[in-house]
Amino acid sequence: MPVPERRGLVSRSLLREDAYRAIRDAIVDGTFAPGERLNDTDLVAWLGVSRTPVRDALGRLEQAGLVHTKPGRHTIVSPLDVRAVHHAQSVVAAMHELAVREAVPHLAAAELDAMRAANARFAAALRAGDVAGALDADDAFHGVPVTASANQAVHTVLEQFTPVLRRVERLRFSSLAGRASVAQHERIVDLCAAGDAEAAATASRENWQTLTPLLTTPGPDGGESPSLAGP
Q1: pTM of this prediction?
Q2: pLDDT category of residue 147 using cuts at 50, 70 and 90
Q3: What span, in angstroms and rounded, lies between the C-alpha atoms of 66 and 180?
């Protein structure tokens, strides 16, 4: 398994959560490609930690569907499976719909301004072809109503399933199709500012459903392929 050249990425006091996020982000951004083997020894050297937080992180990543482990053999980065991504998309869209619905009555001018500022950064990143910047800005935009909803259950579910979608979102935000999200974000903010919780919630769900065209790829027989990338 080739690992990034930088070693000792984090301090040796690394928490399990930090190990999980570091490996997760490397999978999401393509550093660790679908089908690639993940060796405990290499991950320990890369992160500068013991095996315990690494193994714990891999267990959580398997639950999230980002890795697949064959006991006693090896762990690989999961292929982009269409069915799994469809399921994650349905859950994530529903959670953001709920978050916006619950957040609207509590959104003040500062939160609305934060959403507009995040969308401006999102648009600028798309124009510059900065996919990582676009993902960060998109996270910031949607994170405002999630935080304002104060619904810990929503936050927990999104933490598990959003990473599954991030690999697909990288494809969307690297294409012109991703620019449609800028206008969709503007509509969400406008509806939130108007206090229309139901319409804003619906608009948020529809925004997350725009990934659907990327989840259908023609198979060898002309039908739908079960995965976006093989092992």
Answers
A1: 0.76
A2: very high
A3: 27
